[in-house]
Design a protein that fits this description.
This protein is mostly helical. The chain has a domain of 29 residues. Helices cover 47% and strands 0% of the residues. It has two helices and no strands. It is elongated and about 60 Å long. 0% of the residues are buried.
Length: 66
């Protein structure tokens, strides 16, 4: 039963993904790479978040005086 449900849900998901309008340009950031987009994987996003939360130098204000 679980396998049948998984298969049906996968088929429906694929059909919806194929029916969705083609995204281009900056909209590709919302699509995962496996669908032709540039969105990071969950692991890449977590790594980037960790880097941002633990950085010690504010790269946006480097060299500027307060």
């Amino acid at each position: 039963m679980t396998e049948v449900l998984r298969e049906r849900m996968s088929e429906q998901l694929l059909a919806q993904q194929e029916a969705y309008p083609q995204l281009t340009g900056t909209d590709l950031r919302y699509l995962p790479a496996r669908l032709g987009g540039t969105a990071p994987t969950p692991e890449e996003a977590a790594s980037r978040d960790h880097h941002d939360m633990t950085r010690t130098v504010d790269t946006f204000n480097r060299g500027k005086q307060a």
